[in-house]
Amino acid sequence: QVQLVESGGGLVQAGGSLRLSCAASGRTFSSYVMGWFRQAPGKEREFVAAIRWSGSSTYSTDSVKGRFTISRDNAKNTVYLQMNSLKPEDTAVYYCATGNSGFWPQISRSTEYPYWGQGTQVTVSS
Hints:
11 strands; globular; 0% helix; 51% strand; mainly beta; seven-stranded mixed beta sheet; 126 residues
């Protein structure tokens, strides 16, 4: 089992920034990739960004490219999502997830992630 705990959500004005953190514990050696997803009210959960625990490759959806950056700290078993230039349409519950698939585009699919955090609310006001 892998446990994930997100933090860093909150209320911010449009154009502002937030940094989300996701701390992993438990059987983290079985984890190969970390992903961030979000779900807005009435919408399906969507992929935001992903990063492998090794190497330099990162992946993100087009709507956040140039604004959001995913990074990791292997020593702390923590992944971050730096969100800049936030827009009202970024409002959602953000979830981190981990799995052992390392290939694109599979890692953009929520079904590739067996372990999920509880989510953290991000609200961007206009």
